[in-house]
Design brief:
The chain is an alpha/beta fold. Among the domains are: 72 residues, Tetratricopeptide repeat domain (Serine Threonine Protein Phosphatase 5, Tetratricopeptide repeat, Alpha Horseshoe); 123 residues, Trna Endonuclease, Chain: A, domain 1. It has 22 helices and five strands. Helix 20 links the parallel strand 3 and strand 4. The longest helix is centred in the first third of the chain and has 39 residues. The termini are far apart.
Length: 454
């Protein structure tokens, strides 16, 4: 009878479907469990083969895609791993062996590794919703906002991480660094000091603290922090340059030179910007310590790399003129004792008699009087003469400082003699005061006359 045949067909179909369901419900979980065990034992090849077999019959099996991705990672194939985890994300079935939180952490790491920052950020924001009390998710999101240049949002996420975990050293470090670049040194200092407390092995925090201490002229603290910062390979060259700069500000040029030479050795051919600054700062130290050939060599090296770097072109031009005149070269390079004698000889050529010599930064200052004429009974007038050996342009502040010294000592006239030149503001200031400004040409003439009389 027809109805009996139909019944038999329907019943057979039902039994077939039920059999498939039963088989899948028993066999596939067992295979998935076996797959997980292969992965846990580090048998990545076996895990890959098992996962592929499962996916041949069940292409949307999230567990198989997940462990296949992890096995690819185990075999150092991150591109294939990311493809599999993307598929898991599309399936979005977290009822089996795939736990959503570990999955999202792993795929976020892969997105970050492939510089897919927007996708990684989405994952960390989802993780923050799944685990709202976990500071790590907020910290990771803050880092990604920072890398994308959204510093305000980065600051907010770092602060949220610290609300959840005040001992999170890396959040203190990143927040302190952002505050430093935002010109908020007091706040940055607090955060960075907390970073050194809770994450003492993150030596980058010592680098930024060293910069803050140096800018506050707390040189001892700065040198100590920058010494520790050198333990970070990425910060070592910059820390050495900062230490050199710190010592330069302390006028400890002999101590600064070894620090800067070490920085230069590490940076040469590797980090162009750091190399240029190391060369420039060590050249200034050579200049201050009268090692002019060494200074000129550094300026020439800088000029080859970047001709417009700071005032290197001007220094080379100026010293090129000096190198053609032995008198000026001696004036610039002799030791301090010989320099004083040259200065006395120059003052004598100006028609003055030397009374007192005082060493000052980049030169010396001589109290002199006009050479007395035996036919005149008038008291000789004193003059304060400041002689400077430098390539830097003499600005108004230097001339003003001389004028204040003159007033404090009741000296009516002053002279500034330099191996360089003067700024326009310096000339304008001197025009209305009893001060004469003598540049390189005058100095050359005076030195030649002094040499001829010896």
């Amino acid at each position: 009878m027809p109805w009996l045949i139909v019944t038999i067909v329907i019943l057979g179909t039902f039994i077939g479907v039920l059999t498939v369901v039963v088989v899948r419900s028993i066999i596939y979980p067992r295979r998935a469990a076996a797959l997980r065990e292969l992965y846990r034992r580090g048998n990545y090849g076996g895990a890959i083969r098992t996962a592929r077999r499962i996916l041949t019959k069940d292409p949307r099996n999230a567990d198989a895609h997940y462990f296949l991705g992890l096995a690819y990672l185990g075999e150092n194939k991150p591109e294939l791993a990311l493809m599999e985890l993307k598929t898991v994300n599309e399936i979005a079935n977290f009822t089996g062996m795939v736990s959503e939180v570990p999955f999202r952490k792993k795929i976020a790491e892969l997105y970050t590794g492939f510089n897919q920052l927007d996708e990684a950020l989405k994952e960390y924001l989802l993780l923050a919703k799944l685990e709202p009390t976990n500071a790590e998710h907020y910290f990771a999101a803050g880092k990604l906002f920072e890398e994308r240049g959204k510093t305000d949002r980065a600051v907010n996420y770092y602060r949220k991480a610290l609300e959840l975990n005040p001992r999170h050293g890396l959040s203190h470090l990143h927040l302190g660094r952002l505050l430093y670049h935002a010109k908020r040194p007091a706040e940055a200092r607090r955060e960075l000091e907390e970073a050194t407390r809770y994450a003492p092995d993150t030596f980058q925090s010592f680098y930024y603290l060293g910069k803050i201490y140096r800018e506050a002229q707390e040189y001892s603290a700065a040198l100590s922090a920058l010494e520790r910062a050198q333990k970070d390979p990425d910060a070592k060259v910059r820390a050495l340059i900062e230490r050199g700069s710190c010592l330069m500000e302390m006028n400890s040029f002999d101590r600064a030179i070894p620090e800067l030479e070490r920085a230069l050795k590490l940076a040469e051919g590797q980090h162009e910007t750091e190399e240029l600054y190391a060369r420039y700062f060590v050249s200034l130290c050579y200049e201050k310590t009268r090692q002019m050939d060494a200074a000129i060599e550094q300026w020439e090296r800088i000029y080859k790399i970047r001709p417009r770097f700071k005032d290197v072109a001007e220094k080379l031009s100026h010293y090129q003129e000096l190198r053609s005149d032995d008198h000026i070269k001696d004036f610039m390079t002799v030791n301090m004792e010989q320099f004083r004698e040259l200065c006395k000889a120059v003052v004598v050529q100006m028609g003055l008699s030397v009374r007192e010599v005082t060493d000052i930064s980049e030169g010396c200052e001589i109290l002199a009087v006009e050479a007395q004429n035996k036919w005149l009974s008038a008291r000789p007038l004193p003059k304060l003469v400041r002689l400077l050996r430098t390539t830097s342009i003499i600005d108004e502040s230097m001339v003003r400082d001389l004028y204040e010294r003159m007033k404090s000592q009741n000296i009516t006239r002053g002279v500034v003699v330099t191996s360089s030149t003067f700024s326009q503001l310096a000339f304008e200031f001197a025009e209305t005061r009893p001060i004469d400004l003598l540049g390189t040409d005058h100095l050359q003439d005076l030195l030649k006359k002094a040499s001829a009389r010896r």
